[in-house]
Amino acid sequence: xxxxxxxxxxxxxxxxxxxxxxxxxxxxxxxxxxxxxxxxxxxxxxxxxxxxxxxxxxxxxxxxxxxxxxxxxxxxxxxxxxxxxxxxxxxxxxxxxxxx
Length: 100
What we know:
The chain has helices at 16-25, 32-48, 54-65, 72-78, 83-90. By secondary structure, it is mostly helical. Helix 2 crosses helix 3. The chain starts with 15 loop residues before the first helix and ends in a 10-residue tail after the last helix.
């Protein structure tokens, strides 16, 4: 299955329950810390019309939740591997354009 098939095709289909189920597929127990990042990513998408790649995701999280949570180390702890890609998937957004 191509990687793009793992992303929701209709943004309104998203729910916290959906995010939790998708998280479990990747061994991520979605908690409040995860949800606050997912909601920020969805707001970013609503404002700009595309999913945030890593740098804009870090800046968005830092602006709303503080510098400590806006660091790539923190986001990697929450979403190990490729945080921007995983955040987009769990947030029900299209895959970020410059993520492989």
